[in-house]
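Methods, example record. To illustrate the input and output format used throughout this study, we show the complete record for Haloacid dehalogenase. The sequence lines were provided to the predictor; the line carrying structure tokens was produced by it.
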Amino acid sequence: MSGPRQGRLVDAYDLVIFDLDGVVYLIDEPIPGAVEAIGRLHDEGRSVSYATNNASRRAADVAELLTGMGVPAGADEVVTSAGAAAAVLAGRLAPGDRVLVVGADALRDEIGEVGLVPVGRADEEPVAVVQGYGPRVGWAELAEAALAVRAGAIWVATNTDRTLPSPRGPLPGNGSLVAVLRTALDRDPDIVVGKPAPGLFRTGAERVGASRPLVVGDRLDTDIEGAVRAGMDSLLVLTGVSDARELLGAPAERRPTFVGYDLRGLFDVDGVVRVPAGEPASGGWRVTGDGLRLDGSGSTLDALAALCAAAWSRSVAREVAPAAGSEPARAALRELGLTG
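The corresponding predicted structure is encoded as:
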């Protein structure tokens, strides 16, 4: 952590809430160090929860996937946007009401389990449309949804993530598909259930009675903003979507408490830093000028914290391009992807 190292980050919290895609795995492949870090939490008897915007799997399926990767998990530890969307609709609609489902089978199953009737066509007169990510969603499903919403159906989106992380780079997420309907209908969804809304995080904390949870995510616009809305501390890991450049330009509602390379930062005091750095900047780094000139030397994460302190002190968040004033600074900026 910034300044004198204070001890293991995890020791300050009674629950760790993990995002999944980009934090624990990419698609179906575990991120290096993730299995070991979560296994260590289990070995120490610590509470964990998983909160995912991905509506293509049910909680039990997510738990099975994690267990198959070497991370023992139960369905009661998983909160999905599909389950949350079904619960929201069950609270607003009558049993037996029809809901047009755009998404994967998991979302359809969740709708059926709460006593609603999943349908696939607008002429079946659905009273609501629920839209979640599905790898096979296409024009036909989106067209039916548009017709149903125009006819008066409530429009619920499980989430609005523009992209999904993958080993090949970001791929279109549910937010990109929601944007298709937003363009066609010239309106926003009536309800967005998933992050950055705080509900998934609060549900995870309530299930175990946690009073001091830590949210771990890879996206500033969903995980970190959701943690801020929930009043929870957060750790941004640089294994998924958001990177150092995006972090420097983040508005106040999307700023994490800590940044780390990956989940090993939960235990490794040198693998995590509090942001922004305190004054004076820690680790021997100095940042001067409106152009964020980095001088001095120290750890790369401390350099990032010092840059955050300077960038966030500006009245308006904007694109930044730090400059190096020393060879160690050039090396740190290269490692952070802040050159070129």
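Annotations derived from this record:
The mean pLDDT is 93.
Residues 300-312 form the longest helix (13 residues).
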